[in-house]
Specification:
Layout (H helix, E strand, L loop, with lengths): L5 H10 L1 H10 L9 E5 L7 E5 L11 H18 L3 E5 L10 H14 L6 E5 L3 H28 L5 E7 L6 E7 L11 E5 L5 E2 L2 E2 L6 H11 L10 H17 L3 E2 L11 E3 L6 E2 L8
Length: 286
Amino acid sequence: MRGGGGVDGAIHRAGGPAILRDCVERFPSGLATGDAGWTTAGDLPARWVVHTVGPNYAAGQRDRSLLESCYRRATEVADELGARSIAFPLISAGVYRWPLRDAVRAAIDTLAAADTQVDEVRLVAYDPTAHTELLTRITVSTAIRILQGVRAVHDRGYHRVRALPGMSASGLHWRVAIMTANNLGVVNPDAAIHYSTGALKQFAGGKVTVTVSPQTVADLIMETLPENAPTSDDPEYVSWFADLMQLVEVEGMLPIAYADGFDDSDGWEVGWGSGIRHPHPPLSPR
């Protein structure tokens, strides 16, 4: 908080000496790693600067919870101020050398789960590589949220709901069909909810982003899916799907049941081309 290098230095150079004066006055001993606090924005086109101290990966500070705390504490400070929008750099991903892919995932996962009154959060990429990684992670996280909605439907007792994920013929987009068990294999577009990552937020007549809860996704599925009724009669499939989702969430990758040239003899794959396999789903009771 003394105008050093990286984003900190850039903020102080752009905002002028008022920011440094406020930093020294409000935080004479600085802040602990993972904590956050606010100052004036000086000459910046903003009302406040929320300062946070990221862990220095290059110096051995590799506790991911500290990185997550930066985003969580920053949104808490924003709420204390009544802020409605906030922009973040990728904390610790610059001179502190936190691995880019994990830095992106920590940012998106933590902000998506934050209990905050902030309406708009922007993640600002420093270069095209970071920008591409951010867009990819947001796309994957949105698709995972839809699958989490299927799990939430199962938890409500709708055991016959199925998700069939795969890759488009072009290999550019992941897609999933959500239907009831009796419609598996039926060539009828009205018998299922279809989603593709090419559709971005559009799902089941609504919009889904990483900030939408699985329960809200479950509501969309139940409102849209035809011939759906609570049965609670297939705990084996529900358990299988829960195990699949645990693997998806840990790996942060999407499941694949089919694709051009895909060999499914060893089950579904979590992450296109990853080699991580999950067994085929069990047969449903008649």
